[in-house]
Amino acid sequence: MKTxxxxxxxxxxxxxxxxxxxxxxxxxxxxxxxxxxxxxxYDDSEWQLVEKLADLIIPTTETAGAGxxxxxxxxxxxxxxxANEETQTKHRLAIEKISxxxxxxxxxxxxxxxxxxxxxxxxxxxxxxFSEGNDWSGYIDFKSYVTSAYFATERGALxxxxxxxxxxxxxxxxxxx
Length: 177
Fold this sequence. Notes:
- This protein is mainly alpha-helical and 177 residues long.
- It has a domain at 43-57 and 64-160.
- The protein is built from 8 helices and no strands.
- It has helices at 4-16, 32-37, 44-57, 71-81, 85-105, 115-129, 137-152, 154-160.
- The longest helix is centred in the middle third of the chain and has 21 residues, at 85-105.
- The relative contact order is 0.14.
C-alpha cells in the first residue's frame, strides 16, 4: 500500500466485508446453492471467472484455499454493499479486461481451460501486470481484494496467519511483589 488512503481502504475491506459471508452454512462450510442464490453484484459469468481466479491465486493446499472460505461470496458482498459506483465500474472493467486477456492466452475460453493452461496464463498475466509500463492496476487491485478477503475470513486468519486475539500467556493468578 502506497498511501494512507489505500491502507484505510484495505482496512475497510477487511472489516466491512464480513456481511458477504452470509452464504456460508452453519457448520463453517460453503453451501454452494445458497452462495449462487445470494449473488448481488456479479453476474454468473463474472462469478465463475472470479471464483476460478481466486482459486488459482490462493489454491487449496494443506490449508484452506480461496474457494474453501467463499472469497467470491465475500467479494460479491463487498462490491454490492461497500463499493461506490466508481469502484464497482472500475472492478467490472478490470474483470472484463482480465477475462479477455486470459481467454486469448488460453485459445478461447479461460473458464474451460485445463489447470496447467489456466495457471500458465495467470502467471504470464502476473508477470506482465507487475512489470514497468503496463496498465494492469485493475488486476493488481483485484488480486489485493482476493488476498484481503481471504485473510479476513476466520480460516484465513487463524490457519494461515496464525492470528491470536490476545498474544502471550495468560496467568489467572500471579503473585504481586
